[in-house]
C-alpha cells in the first residue's frame, strides 16, 4: 500500500491546523461578545440609562475590531480543501458543501445586514429596531457557527449519506440526519459555549484592568456584573455540553476517548484521570503502567461516557487488539473488511469498463456491505488507528482544568461585584486580566482534542488523511504555510494593537 | 416614488455611516488588504482548485479519484 509521501501530508496538515487555530482565535470572541453586547443594550433600552448606552458602544467597538480582523480568515480553509485536500473534497461531495452554502447564504448575509444597522443606526433607527438588529447579529454569528460545525460534525460521525461508486462521491440521503446529528449538535453547543466563556473572560478581564488603572470604574464594574453573570451561566452550560460531547465521543469515537484519558486497558466502573503524567514508554498491549502520579475520580468515566456507573469503557488495547468478552472488534479485522471494500470498488470500476452489469451489481453489493470499514482498507497495521496520545491527553486535561477554573473565577467575581467591593481585591482583578489568554488556550486545546484525537481519519472510518490529501508539490505547501504564519501573525498583532488603543481611550472616552 | 425614497434613505444611511466612522476606516483598510492578499496572491498563486484546473469534466474528476482510491491498495 502507498499512502503518499509523509512530508507532504504533514505539511498539509500543519497548514490546515495553523489556519484553523488562528481562525479560531477570532471566532469565539465574536460569538460571545455579540451576546454580551446585546444584553448590555437590552439593559440600556429597558432602563433608559445613558451610561449603559456608553458601555454598550464601547464593547460594540471592540466586537467590531475583532469581527473585522477575523472576517474571511475562514476562507483560507476553503482554499485548502480545493488544493491540498482535493481527494477529500470530491469524496465528501455535497455533504460538506451544503451546510457551508447554507451558512454563506443565510447566516452570513443576516449577520452583515444587521451589522450595518448595529453600527450606523444609533440615533437613526428606533431604539427597538436597533436592539433587534444587535440581537440578530448575535444570532446570525451563532448560526454561521452552527453550519460550520455541522460540516465538522459530519467528518467525526458521517451519517445521512450514501456512497455512489459511479461518481465516487458521498451523496446526501437525508439533510436532517446530517444537520441534526447528535455529534454535530453536541459539538455546536460545546464550541459556542467556549466562545461565550471567552467573551465573558474578555469583558471581566478588560474591566478588571480598567478598575486597576482607576479608569471609568463605575462603567467597568457594571460591565463586570454582566460579564461575570453571563460567564457563570455559560461556563456551567459549557460543562454540561462538554459532558454530552464526551458521551458522543464515547459512542462514536471510542479510540479518541481512550486517548483523552490515557486508558489502555478497558474497565468497568472506569474513573476519570484528574491529573497524571503519561508513561512515554507505554506501548499498546504491554504491561507497563500508562500513567505516573495519577489522581482518579472513581466511576466518572463510565458515567460520563455511557451514563451508566457500571459501564465498561474500552481502552486502546481493547480497541486495537479486540476484546471478545465485551464484543469489541479489533482493528485487524476492520482492516481486512476495509480491504474487501476497496477491492469491491476496484472490481466495480473494472466491471463498469467492460459494461458487465452482473459483476457491477455483485461488486456494488459487497461495497455497500463493507463500506462502513472503507477507510480501514488503507491502514497498514492495527496500531494505525491510535491518534497521538500525549497531545490528545494533555490538551483534554488542560481544557477541563481551565474550564473548572473559569467557573470558580466567575463565581468569585460575581460575588465580589454584587456583595462586596471588588476594587479592593487587586489579586482577583489581576487574575481576571490574566485569565483572558487562558480562555483562548482552553478553546484551542479543545480543538486539538477534537481534531488530533480523531487521527488518522479525515472522515471517521471512511477516509484517512493520507488518502484525503492531494499529490502536489510539498515545497508549495511549505511556502504557503509560512506565508500564512506571517500573515495571520500580522493580523493578530494588528488586532491586539487596535484593541489596546481603543481600550486605552476608555469606556467613556470613545463617545 | 415610495420605493425610490426607501432606496435613497438606505443609500444615505450607509454613506453617512461610512463618513462618520473613526476606527472603522482603519478596519475597512485592513479588510481590503486582507482580501487582496487572500484572493490576489494566495488563491491565484498557491491555491488553485486542483481537480477543477487539472480535469475538464466531472467524469474525469471521478475517474481520477477512483484511480487514486484503488491504485496499489491491495
What do you see in this structure?
Chain A is mostly helical and 511 residues long. Chain A folds into two domains: 6-253 and 387-505, no CATH class; 266-386, no CATH class. In chain A, 70% of the residues lie in helices and 6% in strands. Chain A is built from 18 helices and eight strands. The radius of gyration of chain A is 25 Å and the shape is globular. The termini of chain A are far apart. The model of chain A has no long low-confidence stretch (mean pLDDT 92). Chain B has helices at 2-19, 23-46, 50-54, 58-70. Chain B is 81% helix and 0% strand. The model of chain B has no long low-confidence stretch (mean pLDDT 85). Chain B has one domain. Chain B has 74 residues and is an all-alpha fold. The A-B interface holds A 1-2, 61, 64-65, 68-69, 71-73, 75-76, 79-80, 82-83, 86-87, 89-91, 116, 119-121, 124, 165-169, 339, 342-343, 345-346, 349, 377-378, 467, 470, 472, 476, 479-480, 483-484, 487, 491, 494, 498, 502 and B 13-14, 16-18, 20, 23-24, 26-28, 30-31, 34-35, 37-38, 42-43, 46-52, 58, 61-62, 65-66, 68-74.
